[in-house]
Structure formats: structure tokens, C-alpha cells
Amino acid sequence: MIHPTAIVHPAARLGANLSVGAYSLVGEHVEIGDDCEIGPHAVITGHTRIGKGNRVFQFVSLGDAPQDKKYAGEPTRLEIGDYNTIREFCTFNTGTVQDRGVTRIGSHNWIMAYVHIAHDCQVGDHVIFANNASLAGHVTVQDHVILGGFTGVHQFCRVGAHVITGIASVVRQDIPPYVTASGNPAEPYGINSEGLRRRGFDAQAIAAVKRAYKTLYKSGLTLAEAQAAIAAEAGQQPELQALADFLAVSGRGIVR
Hints:
The chain is of the alpha/beta class. It has 2 domains: 7-138, UDP N-Acetylglucosamine Acyltransferase, domain 1 (3 Solenoid), CATH 2.160.10; 196-248, Udp N-acetylglucosamine O-acyltransferase, Domain 2 (Up-down Bundle). The chain has helices at residues 193-198, 203-217, 223-233, 241-248; strands at 7-8, 13-14, 19-20, 25-26, 30-32, 37-38, 43-44, 47-50, 55-56, 61-64, 77-80, 85-86, 91-93, 102-105, 110-111, 116-117, 122-123, 128-129, 134-135, 140-141, 146-147, 152-153, 158-159, 164-165, 170-171, 179-182, 187-191. It has a 9-stranded parallel sheet with strand order 1-4-7-10-13-16-19-22-25, with no helix packed on it. Strand 26 and strand 27 form a beta hairpin. The longest helix is centred in the C-terminal third of the chain and has 15 residues, at 203-217. The chain is elongated.
């Protein structure tokens, strides 16, 4: 169902059982999968591909040009997976040729109002972004992350799987998997044990993550020493492999 006031370019590729609300705009290079619901006054433009089963609320802007002065109109992309909820006034931009050329959001994500996802960000699955969370360019967010309201993430930062941030956190360095972080600048405050329990981690796995956290933050070891110790333990505790792999990649440094 396409509302008669909606403007849908004839070249746009629309799936089955799709609804487009009043006064929405769907551009020429847009592809939207089956069973999606696009609310009123939404703008979906650029080279944008949206999977199936997504619900896009009113006043959302998806696929417009990146907020990057170097952008010169290149046909970069925005790709969104399946079964996401994208609430009011969210803005997701396409990528830039200086990076991967694509901004990518995974599947089964719950993205609340006024969230901004800038160019070249890579967002995983099953994330929750509370109202007004913002990702600057080139940010990577892994699976099962929860960003508290008004959390801001600096360019090129990485946020590891199962991380949770407090309200109004300012993330200027990488947050390793499993960590709870809060503040300006964000600092570590233990592990996200409740989130891990909800996702099926047993007591032994959570205990291993707690030991690794203490190795990283409480042992007095240098970062390189802690990284080596966690990598060694990951051989016996598979849950720690994600943490070891994250620490092995150089970036902006980690919150400490």
C-alpha cells in the first residue's frame, strides 16, 4: 500500500506487502524488501538497500549524503538488514570513498528516536540505541550493544559486543566487549553481567569474563601484558576469544 501523497520514484525497487505512508519520499536508487512499513513524512534516498520486515517511523531520513566536506557526490551506499525498528527523526547517512563506501546496519536492532548514524559506520545485530545516541563517522558497533540515551561515540571508535553505556556517555576510545562504561569521558565500571545472563551465558562463562576484566583493569599489568594473558586464557575459555581479538586490533586505544 502506497499512500497517494507519497512520492516513489518509478525505478525504486519495492518488495511485497509493503506500505509507504503519507508524504513520504522514496528515491530512484532505493531498494526496500518485503513486509516493510514506512511511516509518513519519511525520506529514503541515495543508494539505499533495506531488507525485509523493517518498521520505519515518521520523519526518518535514510540514505542522504554524508556530513563530510570531502564528499563529492560519489554513489556510496547505505545498507540496512532485516527486522529493525527505526523510530522518529533518525538519520542514517551513506558512506564515503575514503572508507568502505558503505554505512551498514545489521538486523533485529531497536533504534530509538533522534539517533544519528554517520557515514561509514558498521553496526551489528541485536543492538539497542536509546534516544539521541549518535555515532560519528567510521564507528564500529558490534552485536548486542546497548547505548544509553545521548551517548556520543567519537570517529573511528569501536564498541565491542555486549557493551552497555550509561546515559550521556562520551566515548572517545574503544570499549572492549562485555564492559559497562559511563561518563565524560567514558570509563569502565565492570562487566555487563545482567546482559550476559539474559543472552544465555552460564555462570562459568560470566566468571571467566569477570576474571578477564580484572586482568585488564585491576591487575596493574600493562595493556600488552593484559592482552597476552587474556589471549592465553581464551584457549580454555571460548567466551574470551572475542575480547582477545578485539584487543589485538590497534585503534584509538581502549577506555581505562
